[in-house]
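Hi R.,

Here's the chain you asked about this morning:
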Amino acid sequence: MGELVQHLKKKLDIAHVRVIGNLSQKCERIALLPGAGGGQMQMAVVEKEKPDVLIVGEVHEWETAEYIRDTQQLGGKTSLVVLGHSVSEEPGLQWLQEWLQPKTGGLKVQHIVSGNPFTWV
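And here is the predicted structure, written out as tokens:
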């Protein structure tokens, strides 16, 4: 899991991520939900898919984060990586610009990077 976290940070150019779980854990099943899917959807994916790690853009801390902590207390193995809402969506928006540009008949399509809105202190 630690290697996965470092890979995500490097590839997505994210300075900090939040993690609940064991960084030494082996990860074979990964659920990826960028952006803000909401606690009910995130928890439903964990229940149905039983991933080793759930990677999300953001969480409602009183829902998904506490659900993951509770399930771990009960012997569950799913860990959580929170990337950040904006930074988890940037790669998809860049891809969308590149995909959309040839379809616009010469109209310029530009992706404006929003970056992480927070300053870490």
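One quick note: The beta strands are 18-20, 30-33, 53-56, 79-82.

Cheers,
M.
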